[in-house]
Write a structure and sequence with these properties.
single chain, 27 helices, 8 strands
Length: 614
C-alpha cells in the first residue's frame, strides 16, 4: 500500500524546489485547456456593467460572454442580419468607451492591438472571413458551412497537436522535478525533439475518448477514471507506447489502488475548495502545482510496486534514470566529450581588477576589443553550447543522452553563443546612435504611412530619437547578467523599456509645461497614456532581436574600424548630439505630427465617425 502522507510530504519538497516552473506549467495547462481551465474561469476579471441607453456595457470589451461565438451561432442559423446588427452594436460599445482597471486603461479606439481585440471580440473577423469565402464560392450557405468546418478543424488540430502533447510534456516536467534540481524549459517540447508528438497525442486522444464514453454509464465512470489515471504519466515516461497499450498498462497498474487514489484526491479537496473561495488564486499559486507534484509522486510509488511484482508490461517502464540518479561513471561515459571540454573552462579569463573589472563582470563593458576579449568569447560560446549537457553531467538535470529514445537536435541561433560577448566603449557609443537612427526612421516612416506627411519626430532636431538608442544600450548592459536566458531577457526588456518610456514621458511633460510628444490614450492596456501593451510588445521583440542578432553583427563591423578613425568618429557624434540636446532644451522640436498639444477624446472620435460600421 502507498503511504499518502509520505507522498504529500515529498510533493511539498518537490514543489519548494521547483515552485515557479511548476506554477508556470499548470498555468500554461489552464490557458491551453489541458487541465485546470476552471481556475482561469474563477480568476477571470468580473465584468463591470453600467446602464447606458438600456444597454449593458462589458468592461473588458468581450461582448456578452463570448461575442465571436454569438455571431458564429447567428451565422450557422442563417441569421446574417442579426449577426451584422450584433457586430455593429458591439463595435459601437467598444469604440465608444475606454474602461479602466485601476489606472490601466483598456483602450479600444486606437492602435493595432485594440483593432485586433475589437475584431475578435465583436465578431467582425468572422464576418470578414465569411465575406471572403462568399466572394470565392458565390454562396452564403456554402460559405457558412465551410467557415464552421474550418473553425471545427482548427479546434481539433489544436486539441490534438498542442493541448494533448502538452498534457504529456507537463507530466514529464513534474516527474523530473521529483529527482533533479533543475528542469530545462526545453523539456516542455521534448516530444517534438524525439519525434513522438503524434504518437503521444493519439494516446491522449484515446485516453480522453474512453473517459468520455464511460461518463455515459455514470456508475462505471469513477472506476474507469481511476483505472486510466496513470496513462499520461506512462506516456511521459515512454512515449513509444501505443495508445491502447498506455491505457491497458494503466489499468493493470491501478488494480487494487483505485480506492487509494480516490482517498488521495479527497485529501487534496480542501485546497480545491480554498481555490474556489479565493477566485482561483490559491489554485494558480499553490493547489494546482501541489496536486500535480503529488500525483507524480503517486505514479512513482505505484510504478515501483508494480516493478517489484514483475508483472506483465514492466519492460515498457524503461526510463530508469527518471526515477533514480545515474552513477557518476555512467554519466561520464555518456558525456565524455563534455567532461573533456569542461576541463578547459578553467582557462576562462578572469575580470580585470578595479573599476573596469566591475564593469566587465556585471555590465559586460570593456575599454576596447583585444586578444583577451576574443579568448573570452570563444570560451563563453563553447560553454553556452554545452551548458545543458554539463548540468546533466553534474547530475542536476535529467541526462537526455541516457533517455531510451534519442533526441533530434537542431542547433539554434541563440545557442551558438555569438551574443555572449563584452562590448567596448566605442562600440556602445555607435550602437546608441544606431538605435537612435533606427528609431527615428521607424517613427518618421510610420507617421508618413498613417498621414502621408513628413514630420521630424522627437524632441530633438537631429535625425535621432535617444529613447530608442538609450533603451537599446541599457538593455544590453543592465540586463547583461540574464543574457543566457532568452525568455527572461525578453520579459525584463519589456519592463525596462516600459520604465524608460514612462519616465521619459513624465520628465518631458514636467520640463515643457505639460507638452506631450506621445499619447497612448485609447490604446489597449495603456497606463496614463504614457505606455501601452502594444508598444511594449514591439520594444520587447525588437530589443530581443537587437541583443541576440543585430548588436553582435554591428559590433563585428565596428571592430573592423581602425582605432584612429573609431575614437574621433565617436567623439564627433557625441559633440553634435549634446549640442542638439542643449539647443533643444531651450527650443524643443514641436509642431504638427511631433507633439500632441490637444488630445482628442474617445467620445469626440466616435462622434465624428458617426455610427459604427464593419
Amino acid at each position: 500500500m502507498v503511504e499518502l502522507k509520505e507522498i504529500r510530504k515529498r510533493a511539498w519538497q518537490s514543489l519548494k524546489g521547483h515552485y515557479w516552473i511548476f506554477v508556470a506549467a499548470c498555468l500554461l495547462a489552464a490557458i491551453l485547456g489541458t487541465e485546470y481551465a476552471n481556475t482561469l474561469h474563477l480568476l477571470r476579471i468580473q465584468k463591470r456593467v453600467e446602464e447606458r441607453g438600456g444597454d449593458m456595457e462589458p468592461a473588458l470589451g468581450v461582448g456578452g460572454a463570448y461575442g465571436e461565438i454569438s455571431v458564429l451561432n447567428d451565422l450557422i442559423n442563417g441569421n446574417l442580419d442579426g449577426a451584422m446588427d450584433s457586430v455593429r452594436h458591439r463595435i459601437d460599445m467598444y469604440q465608444g468607451r475606454d474602461t479602466h482597471i485601476g489606472k490601466v486603461e483598456l483602450g479600444h479606439s486606437r492602435g493595432v492591438l485594440a483593432s485586433v481585440v475589437n475584431q475578435i471580440a465583436s465578431g467582425t473577423l468572422l464576418l470578414r472571413i465569411l465575406t471572403l469565402l462568399d466572394t470565392i464560392l458565390s454562396s452564403k450557405k456554402l460559405s457558412v458551412i465551410l467557415l464552421a468546418f474550418l473553425g471545427f478543424s482548427l479546434s481539433v488540430l489544436f486539441w490534438l497537436f498542442i493541448s494533448n502533447v502538452y498534457r504529456v510534456a507537463y507530466c514529464r516536467v513534474f516527474l523530473e522535478g521529483r529527482l533533479y534540481a533543475k528542469i530545462p524549459f526545453s523539456r516542455f517540447v521534448f516530444l517534438y525533439r524525439i519525434k513522438k508528438h503524434v504518437k503521444a497525442s493519439l494516446s491522449m486522444a484515446v485516453y480522453m475518448l474512453l473517459n468520455y464514453l464511460w461518463l455515459f454509464t455514470i456508475v462505471m465512470f469513477p472506476v474507469k477514471r481511476y483505472a486510466y489515471l496513470l496513462a499520461p504519466y506512462l506516456v511521459a515516461e515512454n512515449p513509444d507506447l501505443s495508445p491502447l497499450e498506455a491505457v491497458r498498462l494503466s489499468q493493470q497498474m491501478m488494480r487494487g489502488h483505485k480506492w487509494e487514489a480516490f482517498r488521495m484526491e479527497l485529501s487534496l479537496l480542501p485546497w480545491t475548495l480554498l481555490s474556489i473561495v479565493t477566485g482561483g488564486m490559491v489554485g494558480i499559486l499553490f493547489s494546482n502545482p501541489y496536486r500535480e507534484a503529488a500525483f507524480a509522486e503517486y505514479y512513482a510509488c505505484i510504478r515501483k510496486e508494480y516493478l517489484e511484482k514483475q508483472e506483465e508490461g514492466t519492460q515498457r517502464l524503461n526510463d530508469l534514470y527518471l526515477f533514480e540518479a545515474a552513477a557518476p561513471g555512467v554519466l561520464h561515459s555518456a558525456y565524455a566529450d563534455i567532461a573533456e571540454i569542461s576541463e578547459g573552462f578553467r582557462e576562462m579569463p578572469q575580470p580585470r581588477p578595479g573599476v573596469w573589472g566591475f564593469l566587465e563582470k556585471y555590465f559586460g563593458i570593456v575599454l576596447s576589443y583585444d586578444e583577451r576579449e576574443q579568448q573570452y568569447r570563444d570560451r563563453a560560446m563553447l560553454e553556452q553550447q554545452t551548458a545543458e549537457y554539463r548540468e546533466a553531467l553534474a547530475g542536476r538535470t535529467y541526462p537526455t543522452r541516457l533517455f531510451p529514445i534519442a533526441e533530434s537536435h537542431k542547433r539554434r541561433k541563440t545557442e551558438e553563443g555569438e551574443f555572449l560577448r563584452h562590448y567596448s566603449i566605442p562600440s556602445l557609443i555607435l550602437l546608441f546612435f544606431a538605435g537612435c537612427a533606427v528609431g527615428w526612421i521607424w517613427e518618421v516612416a510610420l507617421h508618413m504611412l498613417q498621414t502621408g506627411e513628413f514630420a521630424n519626430r522627437g524632441v530633438l532636431h537631429g535625425p535621432w530619437l535617444p529613447i530608442y538608442g538609450g533603451g537599446a544600450v541599457l538593455a544590453l548592459v543592465v540586463l547583461y547578467y540574464y543574457r543566457k536566458q532568452v525568455f527572461k531577457e525578453f520579459l525584463l526588456i519589456v519592463l525596462l523599456c516600459g520604465f524608460v518610456e514612462y519616465f521619459t514621458s513624465w520628465l518631458l511633460e514636467i520640463l515643457h509645461d505639460g507638452q506631450k510628444w506621445w499619447n497612448y490614450s485609447g490604446y489597449y492596456l495603456n497606463l496614463n497614456g504614457r505606455i501601452c501593451a502594444e508598444g511594449l510588445l514591439v520594444f520587447g521583440i525588437a530589443g530581443t532581436a537587437f541583443i541576440y542578432v543585430l548588436a553582435p553583427m554591428l559590433d563585428d563591423l565596428f571592430e573592423r574600424i581602425r582605432p584612429k578613425i573609431l575614437w574621433p568618429l565617436c567623439i564627433a557624434l557625441l559633440l553634435v548630439f549634446f549640442a542638439d540636446v542643449v539647443y533643444s532644451s531651450f527650443v524643443p522640436n514641436t509642431g504638427k505630427g511631433v507633439t500632441s498639444a490637444a488630445v482628442v477624446t474617445v467620445q469626440e472620435e466616435t462622434e465624428t465617425e458617426g455610427e459604427g460600421t464593419i
